[in-house]
């Protein structure tokens, strides 16, 4: 079974039920769609950015949430991808065709988003849960959104998202990024680390707050994954929303993230690795 760093007390849990949009800052909200979160950045009734695009079949739910938050004719100025795994790109092409907006990702993620390459096969033997066992059936791509795809600027800025920076956090994928706003220490971590045991269907359903490394079955480079978690822990975030699990904030969250970084090889890495 996967090991865990449980959380309780002052973690500021902002948990979403399936389909619900939860605001965690004036300009940041997230929506839980089946097994994954998508994030909306921007003030209501203003320019906004979608971060990641959920599982297949999520487009209608994302569009409804956008209309409710940003107005009747809601259309983002951009889509930013933390990475291109199936549960983050499921509605990407449908939304890009509908909205006709640029999609930004790390250049190393390009082959998985322009139709060239599929991801490495998952390891269904790790984690000891149903989600891991079923991973052999998960799509690996490639997805082709090359018509809208743009590389993130090399200077770390994020187009259409002033005051935010992208941070290269490889390991889960080679071009994985996280998003960071220094002014209020707000971190959108993607799957660099997560706050639920994604290998377990029960944990995914319950959404009890726990600090975990990236989903085991789809993480090929554990050395880089550890370096990425250490890099994010060093930022000392105040607010965190990840690709899986509830949004968290506060000192207990930071302590758990530090514990994950310091004990990554025993807590996060599968035993055979």
Describe the structure.
The chain is α/β, with parallel strands linked by helices and 273 residues long. It has a single domain, classed as Ribonuclease Z/Hydroxyacylglutathione hydrolase-like (Metallo-beta-lactamase, Chain A). Helix content is 25%, strand content 19%. Strands 2-3-4-5-6-7-8 form a seven-stranded mixed sheet, covered by helices on one side. It has a five-stranded mixed sheet with strand order 9-10-11-13-14, covered by helices on one side. A two-stranded antiparallel ribbon has the order 1-12. The longest helix is centred in the C-terminal third of the chain and has 13 residues, at 222-234.
CATH topology: Metallo-beta-lactamase, Chain A
CATH class division:
Alpha Beta
Secondary-structure element series: EEEEEHEHHEHHEEEEHEHEEHH
- For the record, give the distance between the C-alpha atoms at the N and C termini, rounded to a whole number: 14 Å
User: How many structural domains does the protein architecture include?
Assistant: 1
Percent of residues in helices comes to 10-25%
CATH superfamily: Ribonuclease Z/Hydroxyacylglutathione hydrolase-like
Structural class: alpha/beta
Low-confidence stretches: 198-204
Mean pLDDT: 88
Number of strands: 14
Specify the biggest β-sheet.
7 strands, mixed
Count of DSSP H/I helices: 9
Assigned CATH architecture: 4-Layer Sandwich
What form results from the Cα inertia axes?
globular
Strand content: 15-25%
**Strand numbers in spatial order across the main sheet:** 2-3-4-5-6-7-8
Gyration radius, in Å: 17 Å
